[in-house]
Design a protein that fits this description.
300 residues; alpha/beta; Rossmann fold; six-stranded parallel β-sheet; three-stranded parallel β-sheet; 10 helices; binds ligand L34
Length: 300
């Protein structure tokens, strides 16, 4: 079997168009322009690219955006002050503190300082709790994007065996919660694997849908994948490539060449999950702007 390529770039563009409609509407009805503040501490080159891509996407949909740069040796106090200022700044409905943060920073402290109403990454314990309860306002961008890739390509996870490799707060855990939820886009049987999992390949081979969020190039090989599975590659790893002008190329956590001969559908890297992550952050920023006007809506 040769897998269908699940084009995240094209789908992200479609979602940005939908967001642009919502942005125009809220501007017209309420005179409010949704705004996103991105905080970037340090000079990690990959983070700089991601934040730049986020700002571009904001521009495209008619949102306000600004980036707040802090030096690599910034302190907890400085970063806290920055977040508190943004909590109080009515131009910004969403605040995004780009991760990872420099090692001297207490990541939990910073995330908990973000107003839950502006936490468009869905990482504040309040929003995590609401996701656990199945009534989220803000789902973290990467898992939300993956759910959209599945649903909009006809791969409803209901009843499927989903195996998530990775247990991070930003991808693995929320991914598992989202897909196991009762309701639209959920109802999967979810297994979460991690560094201490025994017989990983035996478990991944059970997956109808396999989500790889490991952070190691080509960690998922063809022998780990069931014939006909849907494979979602969350990894964005830089590997040296002297033939490129940049000196590197991006590879996922999945051995794409081999696995795409076995899977029925697969996301590419780049152009898969990455662009969808950004599109869903825009969706969340629009939601945050709506919350600033109407408050949080009750969930059933
Ligand atoms: N707070 N930190 C916070 N929120 C997030 O949602 C993120 N993440 C991850 C890293 N830190 C974060 C992102 O935004 C990863 N991530 C992200 C965003 C965009 C892209 C990749 C990861 C992206 O644009 N990827 C392109 C290629 C970009 C390149 O050329 O390097 C792609 O096509 O995959």
């Amino acid at each position: 079997m040769t897998a269908k390529i699940l084009d995240g770039k094209a789908l992200a563009e479609e979602i940005r168009k939908e967001v642009a409609v919502g942005v125009a509407e809220i501007k017209q009805r309420h005179g409010v322009t949704p705004g996103l503040a991105a905080v970037l501490a340090g000079d990690d080159p990959a983070s700089a690219i991601y934040v730049r891509n986020k700002r571009r996407a904001c521009d495209e949909v008619g949102m306000v955006s600004d980036t707040f740069l802090l030096p690599a040796d910034t302190t907890n106090e400085q970063l806290l002050t920055c977040v508190q200022d943004l909590n109080a700044d009515s131009r910004f409905h969403g605040i995004l503190v780009q991760l990872p943060l420099p090692p001297q920073i207490d990541e939990r402290l910073i995330i908990e300082a973000i107003s839950p109403d502006k936490d468009i990454d869905g990482l504040h314990p309040f929003n995590v709790g609401k996701l656990v309860q199945g009534r989220p306002d803000f789902v973290p961008g990467t898992p939300a994007g993956i759910q959209q890739i599945l649903m909009r390509n006809g791969h409803d996870p209901a009843g499927a065996n989903v195996v998530v490799c990775g247990r991070s707060e930003i991808v693995g855990k929320p991914m598992a919660l989202l897909l196991m939820q009762r309701g639209e886009g959920g109802n999967a049987t979810v297994t979460v694997c991690h560094t201490r999992t025994k017989n990983l390949a035996e478990i991944t081979r059970q997956a109808d849908i396999l989500v790889a969020a490991i952070g190691r190039p080509k960690a998922i090989t063809a022998d780990m994948v069931k014939e006909g599975a849907v494979v979602i590659d969350v990894g964005i790893n830089r590997v040296d490539d002297p033939s490129r002008k940049s000196g590197y190329r991006l590879v996922g956590d999945v051995d794409f060449e081999a696995v795409s001969q076995k899977a029925s559908a697969i996301t590419p890297v780049p152009g898969g999950v990455g662009p969808m992550t950004i599109a869903m952050l825009l969706v969340n920023t629009l939601t945050a702007a709506r919350i600033s006007i109407h408050g949080r809506q009750p969930h059933s």
